[in-house]
Fold each of these.
Amino acid sequence: MDQRRVRIRGDPDEFSTGSSMMPQKKNPDLLELIRGKTGRLVGDLVAMLTILKGLPLAYNSDLQEDKERVFDALDALKPALDLLAKFWPMLRFDTKRMARGGGRICARDRPRGIPGRARSSVSRAHEIVGAIVRETAEAAKR
């Protein structure tokens, strides 16, 4: 994932989880799960279009198969849209950083550099970086 995008978008905690490898990163789980539903929805669309394509040549009894596709798509789409309606108003962007273009940093580099210099374990480095991120986030709110 592009690190600039991570730094300019503030995902609500309620819709994100932390990363085991990168404590400063929030995984946009909701958005990833919704993106995963698109394959199912495209499949339903293709099946529906295939059913409808043959209608002029038949007695329309094949329309018995359309309901399953429509309801499957609705079952996938409705919860996703309900969650997006809650997510969207809480989404924040750092427009000043976006205007500046922001810097790039690989989030994995911070914890990797700590054990060698500080003679500490990777798990301790993970804790250190997590604390830095929390402090920085709190300072930015003030």
Note: The beta strands are 9-10, 17-18, 26-27, 92-93.
Amino acid sequence: MRQSEASDLARQFAELFPAVYLRFHRRDGKHRELPGASRAVLHHLTLTGPLTIGEMAKHSAARSPW
């Protein structure tokens, strides 16, 4: 990977990270239960093991009813 390509990817990651963090970071306090959808995703990840973002996107698209 060329330096300019790596720099572009790093810039894109830095631009997108705040939105991703806010989407998945809990802001409702530590003592409340997770919503069912969040719990289902975490449970699924315990069964599949680590996935790349690309693998998660393909998997989500395959399971999506839309």
Note: The longest helix spans residues 3-24.
